[in-house]
Amino acid sequence: MALGPRLDIRQTQSLVMTPQLQQAIKLLAASNLEIETFISEALEANPLLDTGGPSDPGEPERIEIAAPAGEDATADQLMLAGGGEGDAPLDLGAVDRDFDTGDGAGPSMRDAEWGAAASGSGGDMGDTPDWEQLRAAEVTLVEHLEGQIGALASDPQTAFIARHIIGLLDEAGYLTVPLEEVADDLGVDFFDAKAGLRLVQSLDPSGVGARNLAECIAIQAREADRYDPCMKALIDNLDLVARGEVERLKRLCRVDDEDFADMLRELRSYNPRPGLAFAPAETGTVVPDILLSANAAGGWDIAINEETLPKLIVNRGYYLELNRGATNKESQGWLKEKLADAHWLIRALDQRQKTILKTAAEIVKQQDGFFRRGVAELRPLTLREVAEQIGMHESTVSRVTSNKYLWCERGTFELKYFFTSGVASADGEGASSAAIKARIKALIDAETAKNILSDQQLAEMLQKEGFDLARRTVAKYREAIGLGSSAERRRAKKLAGAS
Fold it and tell me: How far is CA 483 from CA 88, 92, 344, 378, 475, in A?
């Protein structure tokens, strides 16, 4: 077959994103503070743009949502009727400040060892629970530990040694000084120093006072009543876990595949740096993008927070002045380009506000029960459901809800917070995971020192209420909201009673 050049005509379709479209997508995903920075840069680059000050307070950009039929009681009355779970003090993700749990230092060998162990077994230790961040900066680790000594020390000498050891702990809660050196410094026997260390290791958070990673994990395993010979063999061979030598580990632990997988999940649930829960945390203020308030008719008023957004206008007087001085085509072309850019930016920002309001209004409508009665009424919701209701693409809703915060009487929440997974329930509609967490917290808050509920008991109680939950799911939710195991809670209530 001979080869030769030829001409073909083909008709194709392709999506081409213009620079304006790309910029509009970026503006949609940006927060109010990022938009403020963008506007400042635009004002410097385009002389035709000017600020008209904040939007006219008499005509705010807002949407009103009517009250649902049958709603007679006020929000306060409904919250009171909800008891302990109605207002959920944590609000399970309410955001009114950002937290950073980083210790500011480079990774240590201990961190690398545990990170390798987690990655070798398929885990992700980066998902630290938010409750540790919330506890940070309330009290220091030393203050928290010393507050427990008085109720647990068997004699004054042991208490004195324990307090000295507490002062030697690093930020992660590890004892980096040899115990022999501690005994020499205090002039006490090694066995007395060891008794003081045992006292420190019995304190909350579990794992403090350990001298290495294996000891830290072993302390937590004993606390959870999981330190059997199989778990001991696994903890003693963390280097094999890091290298992923699964078959060798199963032989050493003498377990089958199912039990080994369960042990690895348990291992990943332990905190390799328990002291960081009390490390100082840098906090920053979150500025809400959307303001939600109840109106006199029993519905909702939703408005864009315009305090941080200057109102952009085209400076017509300056444009006419420049136009009179534009005597050549190059100057006139530049001026027309800047005028078009200014008009486009104003329209793009206006469209952004309308899209945000439209999306937020649908979220408020779908989650009306949450805003009236609390987190227990938070229902499962997906981006697709909102997108279908407002006639937009799912990706648009995703961009609108990224980095956007809504303020209401219950606190400041990221819009993503209102999209939660569902758990099957007796009524067929399902309940959100956040609502289940709130119910678990309410049940645990109602405990007494003599009646501490196990995860299995919690699961059975929730099943009676119509929630189809397994024990492990209950344990996962309990840990996610920062509530300790039954043994930890029993000890905490005992300490509270002693004080």
Answer: 14, 12, 51, 20, 9
